[in-house]
Amino acid sequence: MQLKLLKLLFLLFLVFNIGLGSFGLAETSEARYAEISKEMVVSGDYLHPTLMGIKHYHKPPLTYYITSLGYQIFGINEFGARFFLGITLLLQIYLVYRISLLIYKDDKIAYASALIYSSFPIVLIAARNLTTDAFLATFILWSIYLWLQFKHIKKTSYLYGFFIVLGLAFLTKGPVGLVPSIFFIICWNFFRKEKIKFSVHLFTGIILMLAISCSWFLAIILDDPNVWHYFIQEQIINRATNAEQFHRTQPIWYYLVLIPALGLPWIFFIIAYFQKKSKQIWQELVINKILIVTAISLLILFSLFSSKLILYILPIFSFIAILGGHIIYKFSEKQLKWFSRIYYVSFAILIFGLIASQFLTDIEIPLYSAILLIGMSIGGMFFFIKLNRSDAISKLLNLGFYFVLVLLLVHTVMASNNAKIINSFQDVSKFIQKEKGEELKSVIIFDDLIPSANFYLDADIITVRANNYNTFRETQFEEYTVFKKNYININVPTELEKFKNEFKEKELVYIEKKKSPLNDSLSYLLETFTHKIEKDKWVIYY
């Protein structure tokens, strides 16, 4: 099974990388991480992350380091930014396999767990967007695997590896990076009635983890002691308890509603079994209790946090997938056939969507691409329908995996041709570059923060803050006022005058959102431009 899985992972990696650099960076998260990493490579300063020239200490730097390595290998482009996301996807799937094999000691269950995990929509979403979440999920799974190996083999090298990887998880997203692994271990010890045995190696490992976790933070604090309060109050306490400050607050039931959609369709297969056999699955094996309680505890904790984003709960799905690999062998032949039909319906919906795209004005998918994808979908459906195999479980798992491959290709085609849908600034940047060429000197973006404008355009990008929260920048750590050249707050009278003076520049491009135009009292400034073009949600003056 392991060799079979490796072959599928190789195929997944090939499909994942087809057209990976053909679509633009999505605003704002992906573009933000890509631009920060670019500025690291360009400046050579890997200690102080900057976003559009202003220090950006919102997250620890490991994601930026990994992305920077992608740039150094493949160049500063979209493919370089996203390349290591594909590596993390493969590692996550393989680690789910290895963890499941360790706890269930059944190769078939482990294989099923891995393919179920690869089929979750949230896993693919995380792997297609440059954020911290895919990297964090990988470190979490890796740490759990190393801890289980230590419990199984008792080699101290695994224990030290566990603490090292935990430190890397911390350097990816801060203290929250430790939570899923710690919850799993607590549940493991509780249900297996095991006590933590203190030893020199345990103490040394904790010190090693703390040294790795705190390394960057200490370096920054030594450089500027004022950062200490910012890390503790703003980035830990406020994000957990006062998400309104970051405009990320969501109701407590937010994740509960999203989980079914993010886990389609496997989450419904698992729920269907739990409705009838919940008592049996709970009492059957201790590891089932560990996985269930870990997943539920994490869901409750993340729901209680004030700050909520979809990908925050990605780690929960690894525990669901591992449990699902065990449960799938409990289904009857009739149930497995019904589950396969759900995938056939999914293919039919996908085919219908590709056909409909040829008649819709808001979505652009080239005809030849649509035909190829429809052909792959129909061909795959008929292949699996006609496939007479006694192993209905393998048929269902492979059907789900094939659907993922087609879905990745559909996403690539859709994202490459519909910058507006994925919220990319790439097409606007290309238009500006085409119209202005080498004459382009500076671009004013009114009341919005667009990191990919810096990524794509060789010009001074001036962000103007008016009312939009997204334009707020943490400038208290700037030693000099150089940043004010590219960041103007028109709510400050002196900076308002500076804003007006910018329009005296001859080779200037001004951009605003259709829904957020310049104040009427300042609209006269736009009379100096000879061209006005509307493109997607933007209005461009030049």
- Average per-residue pLDDT, rounded, comes to 94
Strand coverage percent: 5-15%
Spans of at least 5 consecutive residues whose pLDDT stays below 50 are: none
Structural category:
mainly alpha
Terminal CA distance: 60 Å
Q: Please estimate the helix content.
A: 55-70%
Q: For the largest beta sheet, what order do the strands appear in spatially?
A: 5-4-3-6-8-7
Please compute the radius of gyration using only Cα atoms: 25 Å
What would you call the shape? Answer: globular
Q: How many alpha or pi helices?
A: 21
Biggest β-sheet, characterized?
6 strands, mixed
Order of helices and strands: HHEEHHHHHHHHHHHHHHHHHEHEEHEEE
Number of domains: 3
Number of strands: 8
List the helices and strands and how they pair.
Blueprint (H helix, E strand, L loop, with lengths): L1 H16 L11 H15 L6 E2 L2 E2 L6 H13 L3 H27 L2 H13 L1 H7 L5 H21 L2 H18 L5 H13 L8 H24 L3 H15 L12 H9 L3 H19 L1 H19 L9 H14 L5 H24 L10 H20 L5 H26 L8 H11 L5 E5 L4 H6 L3 E6 L21 E3 L3 H10 L5 E6 L18 E4 L2 E4 L1
Parallel strand pairs: 3-4, 3-6, 4-5
Antiparallel strand pairs: 1-2, 6-8, 7-8
Helix pairs in contact: 1-4, 2-3, 3-4, 4-5, 4-6, 4-7, 4-15, 5-15, 5-18, 7-8, 7-9, 8-10, 9-14, 13-14, 13-15, 14-15, 16-17, 16-18, 17-18
Structure report:
By secondary structure, the chain is mostly helical. The protein has three domains: 20-330, no CATH class; 333-416; 426-541, no CATH class. The chain contains 21 helices and eight strands. It has helices at residues 2-17, 29-43, 62-74, 78-104, 107-119, 121-127, 133-153, 156-173, 179-191, 200-223, 227-241, 254-262, 266-284, 286-304, 314-327, 333-356, 367-386, 392-417, 426-436, 451-456, 493-502; strands at 50-51, 54-55, 442-446, 460-465, 487-489, 508-513, 532-535, 538-541. A six-stranded mixed β-sheet has the order 5-4-3-6-8-7, with helices on one face. Strands 1-2 form a two-stranded antiparallel ribbon. α20 (451-456) links the parallel β3 and β4. α13 (266-284) crosses α15 and α16 runs antiparallel to α17. The mean pLDDT is 94.
